[in-house]
Amino acid sequence: MSEDRRRQTGLAGEEAATTFLEESGYMIIERNWRCRSGEIDIIASMDNLLVFVEVRTRRAGGRFGTAAESVDRRKQQQVAAIAQVYLRMRQAAYPPMRFDVIAVTMERDDSISEIKHIKAAF
After folding, report:
1. What residues contact residue 55 under an 8 Å CB cut-off, 6+ apart?
2. How many H-runs (helices) and E-runs (strands) does the chain carry?
3. Which domains does the chain have, with CATH numbers?
């Protein structure tokens, strides 16, 4: 798959995840928040809880396992470190927070066949 195609798939998955969260009552605070250490796909809040969301999108029937399986220990540690940078830069006290994964499955025709929200994934 070309880099452009992979990027388009990722963007479509993030868009679907954002809509899903909004429809579930979350307020989106940031999308694609970046610092030198990397990026957090979505930062949202609900009920005084700050939620850092890693979005993974995979094509149905792909060779590389499920979207959720692709969030390995290294990626979890990276997201947690970036969240600390975000809080320091915002000079925010550490509020109650959670790290979620949203796994999006896309069909070959680019339709979304599944959105799986894994709360407190790590």
Report:
1. 10, 13, 14, 17, 41, 42, 101, 102, 104
2. 2, 5
3. 3-117 (3.40.1350.10)
pLDDT in tens, 45-61: 999 999 999 999 988 87
Q: What angle do CA 44, 58, 27 make, to 5 degrees?
A: 10
**Over the stretch 84-116, which tens digit does the pLDDT of each residue have?**
999 999 886 778 999 999 999 999 898 999 999
Question: Which tokens is 70 given?
Answer: 């692709």
The rounded distance, in Å, linking the Cα atoms of 9 and 26 is: 23
Cα–Cα distance for residue pair 2/46, rounded to 1 Å:
37
Q: How far is CA 35 from CA 26, 30, 45, in A?
A: 23, 13, 20
- Neighbouring CB atoms inside 10 A of 61's CB total 8
What is the pTM for the complete model shown?
0.89
